[in-house]
User: Fold this.
Amino acid sequence: MRLAILGNSGAGKSMLAARLARQHGLAHLDLDALSWEPGRVAVARDRAAARADLDAFCAAHERWVVEGCYAELVAGTLAHGPQLLFLDPGVEACVAHCHARPFEPHKFASRAEQDRHLAPLVEWVRAYDTRDGELGRAAHEALFAAWPGPRRRITSAAEIAALVLHGS
Assistant:
């Protein structure tokens, strides 16, 4: 099983990927880990280095799940033949998920620090439909439409729950 999960922030990508990884024994890669310089706030990592690490991860593991909002990096997984899952529950569901997000110690030093980033995150999530570049809906839609391999658009929490219970 190889899965590439794409969608807006708050769509449920990380939660779904973590659960599927545990359930099916998959290696799990959150693309945030490749996109940003470790230990530095909002410092983008060199894209060529990120792509090289992504290719190495996909090649090193027979069974994996990769997830993120980076269309360019998700596109880099497609040469490895995954099923592409586009989580698209709607912007308001993504906003609600952001408000309910548990503490993410791999991203923030404290819950207070994470909470300070919530308002800008919600503003960013709300811009999904109009955002240019690889992080916006247009890029996600284009990648999903162009992929001739196995793919699925997930539009509700019930569909996500079904995936967790029954696999992809």
